Amino acid sequence: MRFLVIVPVSPSAAGSLTGSGISYRPDLHTAQDSTLAGALSEMCPQVLVTDRPVAREVLRLWREAMPERPIAVVRLTESHGPLRRLPTMHGRATSAILPFSIPMYTVPRQPGSDGGVDEDASVFEALAVAERFAQDREQTTEPFPATPSGTASGRTSVLMIGGGVVNLVTARLLQAEGYEVAMVDAAPDPRAGRPWAAYGASRGGGNARMFTYTEMDDYHAKSADESACMTVFDRPPSESGWDVRGHEGEEDQQWVQDFRSVPPWLARAYNGDILGLNRRGGELWQTWMHTRPHLFDDVELRHDILRLYQDGPHLEAARHRQNAVGATVASYGAAEVRERFPALAHAAPQAFAGGIVVEGFTVNVHDLMGRLLDDLEAGGARMRFDLRVEEIMRDGTSAVTGVLTADGPLVYDHYVVSPGAGNEALRRQIPSLRQVHGVLGCWATVPNVTPALGHSLKVARRGHVAEDANITVGRDDSGESVLMIGSGYGWTGGDPRNIDERKIEDVHAAVADTVETLFPDAYEKIGGRDGLRRTQRHCVRPWTASNLGIFEASAAAGGAFVVTAGHNTGGFAQAPVIAEAVSHALRGVGHPMHTLYHPLRTSRVLHAMAGLGGTTH
Questions:
Q1: pLDDT at position 91, please?
Q2: Nearest to 463 by CA among 423, 418, 497, 510
Q3: Which residues of 271-297 are buried (b: 16+ CB within 10 A; e: fewer)?
Q4: Of 1, 70, 73, 186, which is least surrounded by CB within 10 A?
Q5: pTM: predicted TM-score of the whole model, two decimal places
């Protein structure tokens, strides 16, 4: 797999292309057609990235040099504005160059902060489109075409392994489609109200989840000049890092190396695909609210999110980003925020430079999980809690024949695994789960004092230990209105229990500072830091080095064995589209997520390119 780039970029951007299988040849930008044709025929790239018209004779000679291989042209155009790639269109050619059957993709040049063109970003965006073209044609594993035998009732059976919010949403969709659903989870019943530490991330964290179009994001460097995100695993929270480990695990350094191996242009591809899936998730959540309104009764459903930014440049960049994804409802300066949202009137003078109201919603997720469980049981689903899957049973062809628990084997037609972070038994037996590490987030709760906050918030404080915070309006167990603050990043490595309590305390202290900065009255009412400490908890979220989720479908004896995992901060946001992708897989039907979250996506690109090497001039 090789891409040929002939559009000139800055030296720093050119350096980020070196050694990644991208041949960077700016000397060909103004070369004669015969010279370009010779280079294409000699180097045999799959994709040409250019901003110049390509002569038919050049294309003919390129095609003759690669008669059996898929090839494409990605051409930068002069029209400004970001390319919004949705999974249903990312990879669709703008046109085809006949008679050579070479698809043509056009990518608008990206605007720079100075009002001109950002040529580096434009080329990275073009390479993102090139990568998706290659992925679509390098896919090695299609969703398994299921031929289930069915149960005695005549319905096809499916076992959900894991009872977090993603698998609950998936189970509810499958049940509505006529599947006979069962579920097994190692944790207690979420409705039982056990101590928070007994549960996984969905029930163990705060009773709050948020959907926005940018909720799940890519955390790699997306430009050649970014570097801070590449070192967060080397530093503890007290030094603005993510490392909260008590000791180094066996696989930890490989995971960090995998994270750092993702080049900026590939990160842009990932980010575009994640945001496209977020948008599809939002469409499906709206459908759920319309068709299953009882699930959202009395779960503190609140629409529209106020995003606050502590510094002006970050606010301005966020305006461009939210406008680009079509999320902006309104934008306000600092004084107008205090006027329109009286709950923030007493915030510290420099707490925010302004805010943007964006489309989205929040819920009390524990209550929503309870409603989903009640619905599933009412539909005949069998739930088994406090029961861990110890072994995946397979036949001689490696097809899954059942799962083994302390209560004996469980045998169904289909299996859907969504285990969260940890579960060493499953990690040993399902190689793709070894890509998943833990990243903790800390939680605290304060009273929603008068004047009460009516909109949930997202708060950005660059350089702060609690750099990103979600503040969700909800209610506590007694029915009182509260604000639930979730914030912080703490990498645990492969073991979610590998946490140094001294390091996590720095994250809790940073969350407390966010509360005091924004809501001094609530902070005082709860008793300051000591009072807030009594409400604090943490959850460990499943995270991959690629920052993509994992979607893997393989054979079961009676149907399909599907793994969904590693959605970092976006499991709730993408839950309906994950459910949709599972439903498609069980029916043997393709879905964009099957390619976008394939566990080999990164290695297919980087390993293939590393074997080819790169050329720079």
A1: 43
A2: 510
A3: bbbbbbbbbbbbebbeebeeeeeebbe
A4: 70
A5: 0.92
